[in-house]
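Need tokens for this chain, all 214 residues.
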Amino acid sequence: MVTVVPRQRLESLDLLGGKTLSLRPPHRAPLPLWLALLLKRQRRANILPPPWLHPHSLDRILKIETDNPEGFSPPPPLDPRTPSTVSPPFIPSNTADSLPDYLPYHWIDMGEILLEAASDDIQDPDKVRELLRDLREVRMAKMRSSTLAVEGGGLTSLQGVGAMEVSEGRGFITGVMDGLRKLGASREISRREKEQEGAGSEADGNSEDEDMEL
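Here are the structure tokens for all 214 residues:
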């Protein structure tokens, strides 16, 4: 869901997910992203960017990321009124009244979509593009370092990682995990071979002792 400011009146629509609010300029209203983009394309509404997509908010998030090289900026907190069955990826964190300084689960996708379709509604879109690019680079570097920590036998937390980041990092993460499995298998084979060699040496020693007794 995103927030729009309608330019024209529009009656409520009965969608599969329920009825939308009636649009009455200049009152804000939340709408599904696809419908907001359609109205924006038809010049019947403007899209209000979520607070986290403002340059000042992205600056603060970037500072959190750079000051904490081992973790990611926290995801949007759960509203006490949110049902316990709702997880962070499904929190409505892209409306105009959502909390700033928190990247939503689909922050890369949402940022690219809004910059392409509604850049005139975003404050300083060039600066926003630059900050999103910097955030993406910093966080992907953390993703790579987290896989190195796993490879070294350590643990790492991926709390706050977005959907697109998980998708992009899947390749090298699965590569590292496959390498760890192969390494573990080779170590197990080496251990068994050493045990067999030790058992063989012990058997040879026992046979020599028996020959000496004879």
